Amino acid sequence: xxxxxxxxxxxxxxxxxxxxxxxxxxxxxxxxxxxxxxxxxxxxxxxxxxxxxxxxxxxxxxxxxxxxxxxxxxxxxxxxxxxxxxxxxxxxxxxxxxxxxxxxxxxxxxxxxxxxxxxxxxxxxxxxxxxxxxxxxxxxxxxxxxxxxxxxxxxxxxxxxxxxxxxxxxxxxxxxxxxxxxxxxxxxxxxxxxxxxxxxxxxxxxxxxxxxxxxxxxxxxxxxxxxxxxxxxxxxxxxxxxxxxxxxxxxxxxxxxxxxxxxxxxxxxxxxxxxxxxxxxxxxxxxxxxxxxxxxxxxxxxxxxxxxxxxxxxxxxxxxxxxxxxxxxxxxxxxxxxxxxxxxxxxxxxxxxxxxxxxxxxxxxxxxxxxxxxxxxxxxxxxxxxxxxxxxxxxxxxxxxxxxxxxxxxxxxxxxxxxxxxxxxxxxxxxxxxxxxxxxxxxxxxxxxxxx
Length: 452
Known about the structure:
By secondary structure, the chain is an alpha/beta fold. Helices cover 43% and strands 18% of the residues. The model is unreliable at 1-11 and 407-427 (pLDDT under 50).
């Protein structure tokens, strides 16, 4: 709800230039020599500080700066803590492998070593969870870390860094820098930064990937927030409607996993009334208000862009059956609010479908068959995830097999298919921040060996 100035402090650019101060030559040699148990122990202490003392304070900071409801902000913190807990048990994930006698008298083994200085560039929508995705795994793997929170809501990162220091994390292991484009580019170009993680918008992600990769860095980007839900005719009405309204309108639609496009197989008529009724019950209000279901958008520019895409859809032929523009919230008259909005009769060529809206807007499309739905989802260039609502295990299996994004399936029968097992996901995170070293050994034979 606050206005922000996108200015970069020259002193901050100078600080990023000193990333070599947290590299192997100074901090890292001492830090990496700590046993992994000691490194994890530091995070365990930090987790305790968050859980038992400051979880609500962190959530209050998130709601104050970002605007999401207080309950959603608490979930933001809690989901981040789950990754911290996984990082505390990282040791088994860092084990190497041994192959004996790969050639005559030669053994081979692998070990995982830290890559060096890692960096994380964070979005505004999860100011606690996303930083906790990044630096806990990196530092427990033995790396140092440069964290750049969103300039729109950096407070949570500062609290987390303070807690890390209180827990005993050595000075220079976790570093916070602030700024916008210039600071990001300095991170991407700095020769001492070995790996970069990013969560955010598509345009920024493409820039970060190409620029960092050009200097040989490891790069991981999560982007493309345009997710589909396919609704089959046999789907349970209550389950489907509740899931769609929560996934689309929660956090004002400002989630990378928000469902912003629903594809109704066999037509939308059956779903129009229940979906409209459920959306109308959601309360738009300030994040700290106890009855708030949908909070404000992050800035006035984000609000204006969302409203522009709603109008664009209507101009191109979509039917707005619920219009959240112009919503008035008592006591927050100058807030950046957009209420739940539902667009029916959306077609793939419309801007409201082709672009990331990142707001509380559900675009409803209609197709004849499951094959048509799968083709539609696969043709869209965006997609962190997708879902299908059906009572049919065979339809769910076909969807899982043929869809070309990571599917998270919601099936209203005794069948549960998870996107990834937690351990596999955490294993992937740990590998991102380590380098595999392969060692070949050929012990020299002595006279004693030969006589034996």
